[in-house]
Write a structure and sequence with these properties.
- The structure is a homodimer.
- The first copy, chain A, folds into two domains: about 150 residues, 3-Layer(aba) Sandwich (Rossmann fold), CATH 3.40.50; about 80 residues, DNA polymerase, domain 1, CATH 1.10.150.
- In chain A, helix 10 links the parallel strand 5 and strand 6.
- Chain A is globular, with a radius of gyration of 17 Å.
- Chain A is α/β, with parallel strands linked by helices.
- A six-stranded parallel sheet of chain A has the order 3-2-1-4-5-6.
- Chain A contains ten helices and six strands.
- In chain A, helix 1 crosses helix 2 and helix 2 crosses helix 3.
- The first copy, chain A, is about 40% helix and about 10% strand.
- At the A-B interface, helix 2, helix 3, helix 9 and helix 10 of A face helix 2, helix 3, helix 9 and helix 10 of B.
C-alpha cells in the first residue's frame, strides 16, 4: 500500500489520558482513579450526546462539564482549587512512553493529528510535550462542530493534507475512533496496548476492546513503535 | 400547566433493565451483574455511536451486538445457549414494582411510550407485561432511524398523539433522555429511584446522576406513583 500521510488521534493514542492520575490522587485522596475513569467515560459520552442533541460545545467545555460530573459522582465538590489544576493537566498530558521514538522513526513522512480537542488545547499539548517537532499539522473537529466518529471530522484530513483517504493511515487506540476512521475509508491501525496483567476494571472492559460495530482495523499493534514495520 | 399526554420512556423507566440479572447469573455464573451492566452501558453507547456514524441498525441488532461485547469482555463465549435466552429476556422485562399502580392512577389520560426499542420489541414487551392495558400508543424511534437524544425521536410524539410539545409531560429515568426531551421542548419528570443505600457502582455513578448538559428536568421524583400529584 502507498501511505502518503499518517494521522494520529491525540487523547489515549499519542497522549496518556491516565497520566493525570498522579495529579488527581493528591487532589482527591483515595479517589484519583475513580475520578480519572469517570471523567474520561463521561467526556466521551458528552461528545456523543452533544452531537446527537445538536448542541455543540467545544471540547474544553465538554471536558470541564465531564470533570464536574465525575467529581460530584465521586463525592468531591468541584471547587476551583480542584478543578483548575485538573483542567490544566489536560494541556500537559504525558506522551505515551514510546511516542517520541515512534515519531522520530517515521521522520520524513507527513504526520498529522486529528482530535476532538480545541485548536488551543492541541497547540498547547504539542508545544508542552515537544511532539510539535514531528507533528506538523493539528486538525481539530471544532472546525466542523461535531465529534468523532461523525464522518465530517475525518473529512477534514483530505483537504488539509492534500491526500486521498485511501492514502491515509489513521492511528488510534480508541476503538470507536477506529470504527469511525474505517467507516470513512482510511486505512487504520489500532494501537491496542496491553493492560499489563492488571485486573481488568469496568473502565478497561468498556474502552479496551474492539467494538461490535462491523468495521475491523487493517492492523492491530501493541505500540506506536510497531508502525514503521507496516509501511 | 395543562398536560394533554404523558409519554414514558420504556427501558429503565417503566421496565427494570436490571431485572434480567436473575436470568444472567445462572447463565454466566459469578458474572451476572458484570454482564448486565456492561450490556446496558454498551447498548447505549452503540445507539449514540451508530447515530453519529450514520450507520443505523435497529435496537434489536444493537442490543445483540452489545450483548456479544459484554459477554466477551466478561470472558464468556457468546454462544446461542447464552445469547438466545438473554435476548429473549428483553421481551419479558419486569415492570418496575410501582408501574401498574401508577398507570392505573393516571387512567383516563392519554398515555404513550416513546422508546429506542423496535416496534416488535415494544409490542411484545407491552403485551407480555400487561401494561398495554394502560399504554395505548407505542412509538419507536425506528420510524426515524435515529436514537435518543436526537430531536427527531421526540418529534414523533406530536403528530402521533395530536398534541403540542408544551402539553406533553415526558417521563424518564435516563438522565440523557431527560436532557433530550427537555431540549426538544417537553415538560419533563425525571424518575430518580433511590439506590437504596447500596454501595455505588461505576455503572450507578455513570447513569444515576443528572447530566452536566445544561437542561434540568421540571420535576424530580423518586417513583412513578408520584406522577399524579404533579398534574
Amino acid at each position: 500500500m502507498t501511505i502518503a500521510a499518517l494521522v494520529f488521534d491525540a487523547y489515549g493514542t499519542l497522549y496518556d489520558v491516565q497520566s493525570m492520575l498522579a495529579k488527581a490522587e493528591p487532589l482527591c485522596p483515595g479517589k484519583g482513579e475513580l475520578v480519572t475513569q469517570l471523567w474520561r467515560l463521561k467526556q466521551l459520552e458528552y461528545t456523543w450526546l452533544r452531537s446527537l442533541l445538536q448542541e455543540y460545545e467545544d471540547f474544553w467545555e465538554v471536558t470541564r462539564a465531564a470533570l464536574d460530573f465525575a467529581l460530584r459522582a465521586a463525592g468531591v465538590e468541584p471547587e476551583d482549587t480542584v478543578r483548575t489544576p485538573l483542567m490544566e493537566s489536560y494541556l500537559h498530558l504525558d506522551p505515551h512512553p514510546e511516542a517520541r521514538e515512534a515519531l522520530a522513526a517515521l521522520g520524513g513522512r507527513k504526520l498529522a493529528m486529528l482530535s476532538n480537542g480545541t485548536p488551543r488545547m492541541l497547540s498547547e499539548l504539542l508545544a508542552n510535550s515537544g511532539l510539535d517537532q514531528w507533528i506538523e499539522t493539528a486538525l481539530s473537529v471544532d472546525a466542523v462542530r461535531a465529534y468523532k466518529p461523525h464522518p465530517s471530522c475525518y473529512a477534514l484530513v483530505e483537504s488539509a493534507l492534500g491526500v486521498a483517504k485511501s492514502e491515509v493511515l489513521f492511528v488510534s487506540s480508541n476503538s470507536f475512533d477506529v470504527v469511525g476512521a474505517k467507516t470513512f475509508g482510511f486505512r487504520v491501525a489500532w494501537i491496542r496496548r496491553d493492560a499489563g496483567g492488571a485486573a481488568p476494571t469496568l473502565y478497561g472492559m468498556l474502552r479496551g476492546r474492539a467494538e461490535e460495530l462491523g468495521h475491523a482495523p487493517d492492523h492491530t499493534i501493541p505500540a506506536l513503535t510497531d508502525l514503521p514495520a507496516l509501511l
